[in-house]
Amino acid sequence: MGSFAGSCEIVEEKDEIRLTKHSGRYGKSVLGSSSKGFEQKQREYHGSLEYDIDKLFQSIPVKPSTRLMGSSFHNLETSASAGPSRTTSPSKRIAMMKKPGTPQSPRVGGLSDSVSLKQALRDRCISKASEMAAQKRLSKSAAASPRVSEGDRIKSLYNQVSNESASRSALLPVGKGKGNLVEVSLMPINDKPSSSRSVPQRFEDPSSPISETSQAGTSLGLQRVENQMREIKLLHKSNKCGSCLSSGSGDYEIELDDNVASPSTHAFFEDDVIEIDKHVTSLPSHSSKKDNGTELDEKIPSSAVESGQKGKLDNAPSSGTEKIKTVRKVTRMIPRPKQQPKKKILVKKKLKIGVVSVTYPTEKEDTNDLSLDSSANQLLCQRCHCSLKSTNIQNQPSSYTTSHNLEICSDSLSSISNNVGKEAHQVADGNSSGSCNVSQSSESVTVVMKQDVSSSNDSGNGARDEKETENPTSSEKFEFSLSSKDSLGDYSRSTSMSEESNLSRFSCGNKPHMSMDVRWEAIKHVKVQCGSLGLRHFNLLKKLGCGDIGTVYLAELIGTNCLFAIKVMDNEFLARRKKSPRAQAEREILKMLDHPFLPTLYAQFTSDNLSCLVMEYCPGGDLHVLRQKQLGRCFPEPAARFYVAEILLALEYLHMLGVIYRDLKPENILVREDGHIMLTDFDLSLRCAVNPTLLRSNSPPGQDPARMSGPYNTSNCIQPFCIIEPSCQVSCFSPRLSSNQQQGGKAKKADHLSKTQQHLKRSLPQLVAEPTEARSNSFVGTHEYLAPEIIKGEGHGAAVDWWTFGVLLYELLYGKTPFKGYNNDETLANVVLQNLKFPDSPLVSFQAKDLIRGLLVKEPENRLGSEKGSAEIKRHPFFEGLNWALIRCAIPPELPDFYEYGGGPEASASLGVNDDRYLECKAIGDHLEFELF
Ligand SMILES: Nc1ncnc2c1ncn2[C@@H]1O[C@H](COP(=O)(O)OP(=O)(O)OP(=O)(O)O)[C@@H](O)[C@H]1O
């Protein structure tokens, strides 16, 4: 059996022959040139067992996989098969092939035991070859592009493998050998666990759509994906709203609906889309990208950017890394917009805090009879971080006590007002500007006000002599107990306002808002030097005007540059005309006042039976004269709004002090040097009892708010745009939400702010310091400004000031009063009988007209302000957006010839002597303040 001896050779030869058979060109070069010998061996081979075995192998399903690895595989296969063939007989090899599969065999599923050995060898060869190929490619890629990303490297590998598999697939019928393709495609990326982990699951699934995808379909899918991505890009470029992409994706809706974030979002989004498009189009689009195209088609449907697909996309096979990268770029777009609403969240927090901080008091607090812990109610302004403190007021008849803890706001603008008047002012209008302006870090002010006066200075009270004025023993009694710790100085004091102690001491202590005024020091200096202050210390520069009870002069304190307005009243004349009570009332009211829109009384003295009041000088003239200088003799509405707003605060303050002004008219409104106003002339004012009460304003509609006296919030916040409204309701106004704010991206935010602040308004308590119980039957005032109830003699109260307030606004806007007749009698008749009419010109806003209508209601009980005083009026839309607390710091209207009435002879000549009304003023009889009862 020489044949057996040569079997090895045969085997080897047959291996060579078989090799030649599979790879002719290569085989020829190996076999040499002896064609005859080759043919002989071939014939022998075809009749041998080896031939049969090879035929058997060719018939098994793994045959295609042997082709997949190309020539290298064949080399390996040859060497592998040659190994055992040299040492093992064919029979043994057959026996070995009949053994159960080796551990290497499971890689190819479905193999029979009869071919397990062969298949195991092939498997190992395939794996080895794949790994080597992969490593080679990786090393090539790394060498060619050291900085190439992992995604790009995988992409390159993927493309190569895809090309190979596609080219091999071209040799196979569609649908055949698909499982083997998996083996090949997976091998290079096994070192990418994150991306490849899911691949086997996907491809082991026989129902996987990928396995059913044809090559043609793959190409179409890739093309479709490219088109889709281009569509996305175009949509974003054209719409810039992303709504087309946001369907079903709340993330995008949030992002793109946020107008604030939209610009950056758009840029970000568009950039990514461009990148997406670039990535997709950069993929080779030739038809050989079967897997790539298939996966892209599968993973990026028309709504590929929907966030909901993120999880699915993350599970994409590693072969689709390029796509994954692309899609991840899309999905990364989602978290970024989610960061944008942080602003919203932040804003909401602020608002929430604000709501919480000002929601006060609760029902529980209410039932606790105002025993609120002020410390627990100390709040922090969210914007300027100044403190808001809820304080306690002991509810006592006609009295209140407050503990006001002041902390300094950095934007202090003027001096503090921490005496009774100022405290009262803060309570009344919440105008915290005074308190904000103080360089005091902590001040506790306790205010006790007792007013046992029902009506004091009506004409029926009769005149009082000067001594009585200076040392009053009347029933009027104001007690202001003021205890404070001031960093600027100690003023812990107890002041009786029925004495002249403060003024006689030339102290500015009770005029804190003017405490920094040098005029205090000048007067004090004279007092110290001369022992007393008199007319001899002043140079009377000119006569500013004369009234029913006196004459006002512009005066300079000798040796100083300080100008004052000195009202000189002849005591004998007053006594003879029974007008001493009016003079006394004015004097006492002036002593009380400490308000930026009311005159400061620096000193009072009597010289040669002349009673003198040294007051702050206003160089701007009065509003009546100023109005005459306006175009059309009326003020522009913003200017009128500004002036009446300041007047409203002054009236509010007076009412809080129990003073009904009763003589409001443009002539009594003076213009300061800084353009703000000063309400003067208090000789007709009525002093009365007042019981400031705090109303909880969040009561159900139609139900009177629960009255509560006691705690109120105080604030020294003067930040112009502080959203937390300071102090009590009467002083709070929401910032005006301009039309610009209402438009565009801030509309929602502004709307939200508006709603929040409306809620704040509703929830804040209201301080009512309106002397609603006061009644007088005096017929006082100026004809055109007289309220109907005064004319009818039915008795009147504080509501008369709101009537006159309406007449004032009307006159400032229209240049005339609403009920003026040909003579005084007709005017009075019109006031009582005539309906309110508005001229066609000038044009006045609906809000202004509406406010006037509300104020000029003939029945005082139905008049705006009659119930809750200024708090009602402040809330009118005419004042919407006005920052009451900062109005004193606002820039006054620019008006022509503003300082024409400054000191000097020239100015004196133009002191309105040619003005009819001013002449009327001189002719006191015509400009009457008459007292019928
Ligand atoms: N502080 C002041 N600064 C500048 N001018 C003033 C000041 N006080 C008063 N005047 C001017 O002096 C005039 C007289 O004022 P005064 O208060 O004495 O009388 P009246 O206001 O006309 O009415 P009445 O008769 O009620 O007193 C005013 O019209 C005003 O123009």
TrEMBL record:
<protein>
    <recommendedName>
        <fullName>non-specific serine/threonine protein kinase</fullName>
        <ecNumber>2.7.11.1</ecNumber>
    </recommendedName>
</protein>
<keyword id="KW-0067">ATP-binding</keyword>
<keyword id="KW-0547">Nucleotide-binding</keyword>
<dbReference type="Pfam" id="PF00069">
    <property type="entry name" value="Pkinase"/>
</dbReference>
<dbReference type="InterPro" id="IPR011009">
    <property type="entry name" value="Kinase-like_dom_sf"/>
</dbReference>
<feature type="region of interest" description="Disordered">
    <location>
        <begin position="280"/>
        <end position="323"/>
    </location>
</feature>
<dbReference type="GO" id="GO:0004674">
    <property type="term" value="F:protein serine/threonine kinase activity"/>
</dbReference>
<dbReference type="InterPro" id="IPR000719">
    <property type="entry name" value="Prot_kinase_dom"/>
</dbReference>
<feature type="region of interest" description="Disordered">
    <location>
        <begin position="451"/>
        <end position="496"/>
    </location>
</feature>
<dbReference type="InterPro" id="IPR008271">
    <property type="entry name" value="Ser/Thr_kinase_AS"/>
</dbReference>
<comment type="similarity">
    <text>Belongs to the protein kinase superfamily. AGC Ser/Thr protein kinase family.</text>
</comment>
<feature type="compositionally biased region" description="Polar residues">
    <location>
        <begin position="208"/>
        <end position="219"/>
    </location>
</feature>
<feature type="domain" description="Protein kinase">
    <location>
        <begin position="538"/>
        <end position="879"/>
    </location>
</feature>
<keyword id="KW-0808">Transferase</keyword>
<feature type="compositionally biased region" description="Basic and acidic residues">
    <location>
        <begin position="288"/>
        <end position="300"/>
    </location>
</feature>
<dbReference type="GO" id="GO:0005524">
    <property type="term" value="F:ATP binding"/>
</dbReference>
<keyword id="KW-0418">Kinase</keyword>
<keyword id="KW-0723">Serine/threonine-protein kinase</keyword>
<feature type="region of interest" description="Disordered">
    <location>
        <begin position="189"/>
        <end position="219"/>
    </location>
</feature>
